Amino acid sequence: MGSENGKKRGVGRRAVLIGGGVAVVGTGVLAREELARAWWRLPWMEKPRVDGELDYRAAAWTAAHQANSRRADRPDDYRIDRVVIHVVQGSYATALKVFRNPLHEAATHYVVGKDGRVAQMVRELDVAYHAGNRDMNERSIGIEHEGFVDRPQDFTKAMYEASARLTADICRRYGIPVDREHIIEHAEVEGTDHTDPGPHWDWDRYMELVRRERAKLPA
Ligand SMILES: [Zn+2]
């Protein structure tokens, strides 16, 4: 039965690929099967969304303008296996403001403030334009941090801790290993001309915090 099925499916698929009047018998069933498997790719069948819904409970929702991201259905259409660390070159308020601007052409999923506040601006299932590289945008979650790359005093204890909790939670939910291959800086993204988070971002300290937070969460 299995092989007969397979044969029919094979013929059906070829017919569909060729197109035209050849595809007559059996393609209805095939099409339904294909659709059932790829339902999330169809705009009218995408996962239900609720306004203001958060992926990270400790965040506050502030929507970025939809022009700064692309609707998707991650992790079903794109696997999420990277977290990209950014520094805003500005304040928390500035980050929220520019990401709400449709002309900015960029936004991250999250913004972390010096006081440890976290805003979610793009749903994780969507592709935010933050890394300046299409492949990286499609596979990553972007986290922006308040402050300037040349001002180490901007990177506060509260910010490191809040960001580490967020990154640990993301890593848990998508099974991302807690290491520097998977948690990267914007400056490490191929083709970027950005230098953030810069030389004052304390990676040893940050990764230690992420590891500690990750250990507190379920496997
Ligand atoms: Zn950046």
From TrEMBL:
Q: EC number(s) of the enzyme?
A: 3.5.1.28
Any one Pfam family here would be Amidase_2
The top of its lineage is:
Bacteria, Bacillati, Actinomycetota, Actinomycetes, Kitasatosporales
As one GO molecular function, the record gives:
N-acetylmuramoyl-L-alanine amidase activity
Q: Which organism is it from?
A: Streptomyces omiyaensis
Q: Which reaction does it catalyse?
A: Hydrolyzes the link between N-acetylmuramoyl residues and L-amino acid residues in certain cell-wall glycopeptides
Q: Which Gene3D superfamilies match?
A: Peptidoglycan recognition protein-like
What InterPro entries does the database record attribute to this sequence?
A: Amidase/PGRP_sf, Amidase_domain, NAMLAA_amidase_2
Q: Does the keyword RNA-binding apply?
A: no
Q: Which SMART domains match?
A: Ami_2
> Sorted alphabetically, which keywords does the UniProt record give?
Cell wall biogenesis/degradation, Hydrolase
Q: Which residues form the N-acetylmuramoyl-L-alanine amidase domain?
A: 69-198
Descriptive protein name: N-acetylmuramoyl-L-alanine amidase
